[in-house]
Structures are given as structure tokens and as C-alpha cells.
Write a structure and sequence with these properties.
Length: about 350
């Protein structure tokens, strides 16, 4: 290397006294192994690896459950061979101090717990999981000695393969369908176009309602319409509400809108002998007249008196008087504002 910066680029620096013929590699020059601390027991045939527990086990010392897939720092070494396949042993230490040893079993294609733990027995049918089922030793011996059994097994495999052809064809068709980028893009753009049109329609409706831009309208639904119709009054209470509203309006139409200077309206005037006739709806109490005259003067409209003296005038009085006049336009407008129904015609009091 020409410079320290160039050495840092690939993390290799050859010192001045390094001789390739003498040292061979930088690891030998530094007295290190390529795997560093993982190979500290390499002279004993032991390599430090990360080992995942292949199945659920219980610790033999503390009894704690160790789930499948939990990782440990394990010492890996060869302890034997099955024909030409090595048998590997993995030794690991639990946090309680218990040493757990698991070995491979090439004959049965699985792992075996040797020391320090107990395996959780979980049995299942490989055929239900869709996994190939390996024959055991007895079945292999029977197949080797019985040609008919071997033929039956081959026939069963052929039936299984025929049953899986339909699933394979469906998978192949789905793959070809997903390969067609034009059709996928066409369907996607159509869906996006419809979504944009719906968003534009909702935005136009929001502007018609005068809502703020921060409010987003959602698509209408039958449930929303039904809940909105029942928001103020239930369906059973609607007729009662309409009847009460109509009765209130009738009472308002029958009341007087004129002020009462002398007290509450509804007084009467009585006359005796040749006295004045009674007036309905008199303003300002009652007056009595005897003989040919009337009592104290009470103001009234369109009333009559048959006695002498000052006549008694009553609003809308019966007994020889004329009918009550119509209200003026200003009075009708005032009454309409009270009733909140423009255009209402009042017939008078």
C-alpha cells in the first residue's frame, strides 16, 4: 500500500517486515485466525457458532421452557459419523448454568437431545402439513423385500402427483396473470380514476354546504341517512310533536297583539234598565251603568250604549256595534314576525 489512507480503504496494511514467502498471510503474521475469537478452541476441533434450538425443550436444571428458535453461543464439534455423514454435537450453556448438548441424527434426519434438557413431544402427520414423509427402517426393509408393496407405494405417489396438478396449474395461471403489466396497470388506473371522480364530487358537495376546506366529506350511506332522520325526534314521537306544534300555533293566532294599558284584557261592561250593552274583550276592567246612564268611562272600540251620558266602548263588543276593523299592514308584519311565518293573515281580535 502506498499510503495509510489506501490501507484504510480495504482494511489491509502490510508492515515493512512482512514477507509473503515466510508469513504467507496477515493472519499468520499477526498470530490470529480468520474467525478471530470464535476459533479460540480450533486446536481442539471446536468452533463457536450461533445455534438455534430446533424444537421446544425444558431445561434439566431449572425447568424453564426454552422455545423453538432461541439462540445460544454453542461449541460445535464432530463426535462421530453415519456412513460418510458427520455427526455434529452442539454444547450450550443456559443462564442457570446447565449445559445442554444436542446432536444431529443423520439416520432419522433430525436432532436428538443428549444431555441437560428434555424435548417437548409434538406429534403431527407430515401428510397433513404437505411435507414428504420419509419411510422408517422397517418400511424400507419391507419395500426392498416386497415388489408389490413397492408398486403400491409408487401408485400412491402417482395419485398424489395427479391431485397436485390442478393446484400447480392454478399457481402457474396466477403467475402469468401477474406477469401482464399492461392489464395490471389498466385496472389500477381505472380504480384511481373512479376514486378521483368520487373525491371531486364530495368536494363540490362540501363547497355547496359552505363547509371549511379542512372538513372532508365521507361517502353517503343508508345508515347515516337513517340516523340523521332520527337525530331530533323518534319515529313514534313525530305525530305528537306535529299535534303540539299545531295547537300552539292556534293559540298564538287567537291571542291579542295590542298592548293593555289598564290591566289584563277580557273585561265586560254591564248595563241595567236602559243601560249600555256588554262588550267582549274590553280593555281596562269593567264598568257598570244604571238607569239611563253608564258607569265610569272605559275606553272601547266599536261598542254601543243605550243609556244616557257617556257611552261605553268595547273592542269587538257585541250588542248593536259594528264589526272590528282589519289590522294595518304594520300590525300584520309585526304579528308575522312573532309567528315566524311570513304571509300570515290575521282576521282581527
Amino acid at each position: 500500500m502506498s499510503s495509510l489512507a489506501a490501507a484504510r480503504a480495504d482494511n489491509f496494511r502490510y508492515p515493512p517486515d512482512f514477507d509473503p514467502k515466510k508469513h504467507g498471510t496477515l493472519n499468520k503474521y499477526n498470530g490470529q485466525h480468520a474467525l478471530r475469537d470464535r476459533a479460540r478452541k480450533i486446536h481442539e476441533g471446536i468452533l463457536i457458532i450461533r445455534f438455534e434450538v430446533p424444537f421446544n425443550i425444558w431445561c434439566g436444571k431449572c425447568g424453564e421452557h426454552i422455545a423453538k428458535g432461541v439462540r445460544f453461543n454453542a461449541e460445535k464439534k464432530a463426535v462421530g459419523a453415519y456412513h460418510s455423514t458427520k455427526i455434529w454435537s452442539f454444547s450450550m450453556r443456559h443462564h442457570c448454568g446447565c449445559v445442554i448438548r444436542i446432536e444431529t441424527d443423520p439416520k432419522n434426519a433430525e436432532y436428538v437431545v443428549k444431555d441437560g434438557a428434555r424435548r417437548k413431544e409434538e406429534s403431527y402427520d407430515p401428510a397433513d402439513a404437505g411435507l414428504p414423509q420419509l419411510p422408517d427402517e422397517a418400511e424400507r426393509a419391507a419395500l426392498a423385500s416386497d415388489p408389490l408393496a413397492s408398486l403400491e407405494r409408487s401408485t400412491a405417489h402417482a395419485r398424489e402427483a395427479a391431485g397436485g396438478r390442478a393446484a400447480l396449474a392454478a399457481l402457474a395461471a396466477e403467475r402469468e396473470e401477474k406477469r401482464d403489466g399492461y392489464s395490471l396497470n389498466k385496472r389500477l388506473r381505472a380504480a384511481l380514476r373512479a376514486s378521483k371522480q368520487e373525491d371531486a364530487r364530495l368536494d363540490t358537495r362540501r363547497k355547496e354546504l359552505g363547509l371549511a376546506d379542512s372538513i372532508t366529506l365521507l361517502p353517503e350511506s343508508e345508515a347515516d341517512a337513517r340516523e340523521a332522520s332520527l337525530a331530533l325526534f323518534a319515529a313514534d314521537d313525530r305525530p305528537k310533536f306535529d299535534a303540539a306544534w299545531a295547537g300552539k300555533r292556534r293559540r298564538i293566532m287567537g291571542e291579542s297583539i295590542m298592548p293593555t294599558p289598564g290591566g289584563s284584557g277580557g273585561g265586560s261592561s254591564r248595563g241595567g234598565g236602559g243601560g249600555g250593552s256588554s262588550g267582549s274583550g274590553a280593555v281596562g276592567g269593567s264598568s257598570r251603568g244604571g238607569g239611563g246612564g253608564s258607569g265610569s268611562g272605559s275606553r272601547a272600540v266599536a261598542g254601543s250604549s243605550r243609556g244616557g251620558g257617556s257611552g261605553s266602548r268595547a273592542v269587538g263588543a257585541s250588542g248593536g256595534g259594528k264589526g272590528a276593523p282589519k289590522l294595518s299592514a304594520a300590525a300584520q308584519a309585526f304579528a308575522a314576525r312573532l309567528l315566524r311565518k311570513p304571509g300570515t293573515q290575521l282576521k282581527g281580535l
